[in-house]
User: Fold Alpha/beta fold hydrolase from Streptomyces hyaluromycini.
Amino acid sequence: MPSRPQRTAHLRPVGDGELVARHRVVHGYRRAYRIAGDGPALVLIHGIGDSSETWARLIPDLARTHTVIAPDLLGHGESDKPRADYSVAAYANGVRDLLTTLGIESVTLVGHSLGGGVAMQFAYQFPERTERLILVSAGGVGREVNPVLRLVSLPGAHLLLSALRLPGMRLQVDLALRLLRLLDTGLGQDAPELLTLVDALPDETSRNAFIRTLRAVVDWRGQVVTMLDRCYLTEGMPTMLLWGDRDSVVPVRHAHRAREAMPGARLEIFEGAGHFPFHADPARFVALVQEFTATTDPADWSREHWRTLLLDGRPDTGHGPAAQQDLREASERSAT
Assistant:
């Protein structure tokens, strides 16, 4: 597909007022989001337990050339936290509905971790509204996931999360994290930011929403949803994968597996970064997103092309042990 000419940047400064969370009521629930800038729409979807605040350092630069929309997913941040459906399919619907209320029809999606799974699900459910995919340390590739998340998916997780907020516990956890960092472990790389997510669960309602979201995608064996079975449908859709090579939550080998399953996908590895590469090197992250959106044409979706892809089905990825293991794992996990 031919590259599009470099887009001239607007270089419009973003005022502080644009970064303040706004709210829309959709289906009776208040949904928080941040919106800033002008130009083609760029949607930033955060991971589990996180919020749009995670993108705060990047939004001003991205908003110079894009209309940036960063929602707080239902159950997260300043959005409502009802006893509701927190599956990736429901989240994709929620993003679609919020964008519709904002009058935005087509977007480039940037999804981190769980948000990467939501972005993939959005592209599957609404391909006609998806221009590009940028998946950052995305879930939904392999079964493997950090053992801590598997533990929190078990019965009694409410007690565990509540205990982390007891007086004295934070000091003990901080000491353990310092030791992990001194030992130069992958978990030590990501643990401080993961602990920040626990701090964002101040009450039972927040913890309940977190656990319901987690259990929709993780159980004691690992990740329970997969996108491998439908990755072939991204043919013709510009896709970029961004990963830290020291990711302790979703291992970097998932990035290579995803690239093999997604026709034409581009992979960029952030050396020395963990599960949050956009925090580790925000300047490189912004530059990659801007370059990718400026030099690729939006996906040209058609019903006939989609029908042809579905009829042809998933291509044979080979018969080696790794390929067989991928297919076996995918068949054992849920295809939402």
